[in-house]
Amino acid sequence: MASSTSRINLDGNPINPLTICMIGAGGFIGSHLCEKIMAETNHKIFAIDVYNDKIKHLLEPQQNGATSQFVDRIQFYRINIKHDSRLENLIKMADLTINLAAICTPADYNTRPLDTIYSNFIDALPVVKYCSENNKRLIHFSTCEVYGKTIGSFLPKDHPLRLDPEFYLLKEDSSPCIFGSIEKQRWSYACAKQLIERLIYAEGAENGLEFTIVRPFNWIGPRMDFIPGIDGPSEGVPRVLACFSNNLLRGEPLKLVDGGQSQRTFVYIKDAIEAVHLMIENPGRANGHIFNVGNPNNEVTVKQLAEMMTEVYSKVSGEPALDVPTIDVSSKEFYGEGYDDSDKRIPDMTIINRQLGWNPKTSLWDLLESTLTYQHKTYAEAIKQAIAKPAASS
């Protein structure tokens, strides 16, 4: 690990050790961010979450002493931010707060819209308030879903302007936020996230809050989501990568919602965490900005993603692919009434490239190979045992 005196930021200024209050530190993004901060900086972390399984290796000294040097720099607080008086004090003691806490699984937006709105708007209000009142910097995680649908999606299917970047490329400072009707409860998440963004921006404009807003575009990698019935609820529906991984691990066809025609871009978690690291250590360049963090070069339809994952999984597991690797299901059947979707999510990278010089590096094939190798190594045996159990007991 570099000493604090030898590290400089993008403007050549020394990077002083920070105390970071990280809310949601035990999740997918939080665990990777904690690892990077522990390994490469002298910053300290107040890690706030209700679970710590994904960061346990940072919190407890290993027998060989490999991670014991981190124990003095990371402290875990089992806190539910809905109702815990310790939160304000931890924000006061820190230099910077990073808020990652959210319900962010599409299956929940329809079935738990109230929880989704509360989690992403109401529960975030005290965090913003404490940062603003105590003059503390905030990095808040939003979502690419705030953009909703593209302008191009409202044009006729074969209209040439659909191919014009002006009609589909999502820009932080100019693209409108277009959502479906109120009956489409799937937009409960995007609306709540947009409103908290507007509130943070207003706190900056009226009360001088130093903020950065992050809009992730499908960050993918090890430890993402859960595998139903193994380390998550058996009736749960995780996001697309874990959904497809679950099917591959079980030898089942991958379910394509409405034919898998939606287009997405995917970025490797390690690349994305590098962008956040730059935001943490370059406040002069990051404050007051909203940043898209994604990889426009890794654009595929969900159907193409399913085909790639089938091929990659066959390679990493040594198991032959199914004769019929995918099946089509309706969104109503898969997610329930009130589902709606955005057509394309392709980030414009101009602002983050200009401010932080960041560009993603990892190709879609490489990030899928790395992630599916992890999924197979972590879950294949547990799934085999879970599948065998009913047969053994019958």
Automatic annotation (TrEMBL):
One of its GO terms (molecular function) is carboxy-lyase activity. The keyword Nucleotidyltransferase does not apply. The keyword Ion transport does not apply. It comes from the Eukaryota. Residues 20-294 form the NAD-dependent epimerase/dehydratase domain. Keywords: NAD. InterPro entries: Arna-like_SDR_e, Epimerase_deHydtase, Lipid_A_modif_metabolic_enz, NAD(P)-bd_dom_sf. This is NAD-dependent epimerase/dehydratase domain-containing protein.
